[in-house]
From TrEMBL:
<dbReference type="InterPro" id="IPR032466">
    <property type="entry name" value="Metal_Hydrolase"/>
</dbReference>
<protein>
    <submittedName>
        <fullName>Imidazolonepropionase</fullName>
        <ecNumber>3.5.2.7</ecNumber>
    </submittedName>
</protein>
<dbReference type="GO" id="GO:0050480">
    <property type="term" value="F:imidazolonepropionase activity"/>
</dbReference>
<dbReference type="Pfam" id="PF01979">
    <property type="entry name" value="Amidohydro_1"/>
</dbReference>
<dbReference type="InterPro" id="IPR006680">
    <property type="entry name" value="Amidohydro-rel"/>
</dbReference>
<dbReference type="InterPro" id="IPR011059">
    <property type="entry name" value="Metal-dep_hydrolase_composite"/>
</dbReference>
<dbReference type="InterPro" id="IPR051781">
    <property type="entry name" value="Metallo-dep_Hydrolase"/>
</dbReference>
<keyword id="KW-0378">Hydrolase</keyword>
<feature type="domain" description="Amidohydrolase-related">
    <location>
        <begin position="89"/>
        <end position="438"/>
    </location>
</feature>
Amino acid sequence: MFSLINIKSVAVIIYTTLLLGCVSSEQKATQNKYAQQDIAYVNGQFFNQSHGFESKAIIIREGIVIANVNALSDNFPGKVIDLQGKWGIPGLIDMHTHSFGNFIPNAKNDAPGTQGVSQRVLKAGVTGLVDLFGDETALVAVRNRQRNGEFVGADIYASLTCFTAPKGHCSEYGITTRTVSTVKQAQKQMAELAKQKPDVIKIVYQPSDDQPSISKAVFAQLVQESKKLGIKSIAHIKTWQDIRDAAKVGVSAVTHVPRGEIPKDIADLMANADVAIIPTLSVHNDFVNYLFDPSVLNSPLLTELVPDTLISAYRANDLIAKYQDRKTSFQQRNEVTLNAVKAMSDAGVKVLVGTDAGNWNTVQGYSVHREMKLLTDAGISPLQAIASATTHSADFLGIKSGFNEGEHANFVILNASPVDDILNTQQIALVVKSGNIVVQNDPSLSKL
């Protein structure tokens, strides 16, 4: 007969064997799930629009996030990048730009072209841009080159052109645009544009403007045609009544904030109609800051993105003197605009970050960070501002980009918390585009 000690010994051996077998199975499962070419980013705080920043490990394969886990297993076979507690946000998206380059007051413009802008803005953590009017043929060509991998740059999305009235806004720049006066013309022009596969449709609707505008009937037809194509529409507007009309015809978003106090009905009207707002606060509000807030032009990120001539132009004494006596009125007007954006946000209107870069007091890439700062000046939280520049904009475009499983690995690693100070979005350590590190400002973040 077995003694009691022998029975216990046998039991221990069996239990240990089973335990080792389970561990071995778990190790094999992990090894089967991950591969040597996989890259894991660990010890980071990653943005989640529902929960804020979370400590996670992000695993990437061939440019796609394949796992978002609490911790990385010890036997992970791939490469590991220790983020040392830094903060990760999804790649930034500029929802309203004109990607020829940057306007410079009283000097030759900084005009690297769309490809150059697409490449340059990666330094600012911008991994996607939406051009809302340019040379249609040129934009189709450069977008194709970017999507075919002929150069590494921010993803290019575009309306390609804009729909406007003859001699209406967009027609004054010497670039061919699609002008329409009747419902039939709207149908015909939309069908022709559809062949070029625009990512969004831009429509200029401002009947109170000095320039001619399409009618409300033509506006409605253009929106209807865009819906048939499954393409979202963005309306350039000027007044609060324009927004009422836009909501009524079912536009997807409006760009710009009308001047003056927001009427009481507007915010709820937009929210109920699911009309998003692209405020473009940079182009509306930042002029006074470029002239009178030295920190704006002293940003190290700005100096990486533009020639000295642009910065010097806004520091010119004659330009500052010209607007010195209007500084207070500019600030008061800006406060009204910020209050309007806050009212929209509080009502549940989806706010999307767009800069209208290519105009006065805007800089491709940098103004996305300025836009987030201005949103927080309006009383919107840093987390909401980040979502407006990342996940909300991605959702609008129908793309998946960020940290969740199955999303494109486009993200930015920051040296400091953007929750503590939204200006910390400018403290960029790494930019990852399609799973590849395309900007590395912190050499200590090396692969282990």
